[in-house]
Amino acid sequence: MPAGNDQHGIEVHLDAVLEERGMTLTELSRQVGITIVNLSILKNGHAKAIRFSTLSALCQALDCQPGDLLSHHTGD
What we know:
Layout: E1 10-12, H1 14-21, H2 25-32, H3 36-43, H4 52-62, H5 66-69, E2 70-72
Antiparallel strand pairs: 1-2
C-alpha cells in the first residue's frame, strides 16, 4: 500500500520530490520551519491533515505545485 493511502486515498510524494530536488528532510525542515518529526509523519503518509499554509510553504520551498506532493487514488 503506498504511503498515505489509508482509507482516504491520498498518496504523499514528498520523498520523490525531495529526491528530485536533491534536498534532505533536514534542509526542508529548516527552510519551512516545520519539525523533522512532523515532516516525517507527512512523508510516511501518517498525517491525518495538512494546513494550507503548510502546503503552501512546502510548495514554495520545493518550487512545486500541491499536485506534485499529493495525489488521490480511488479504490480498486
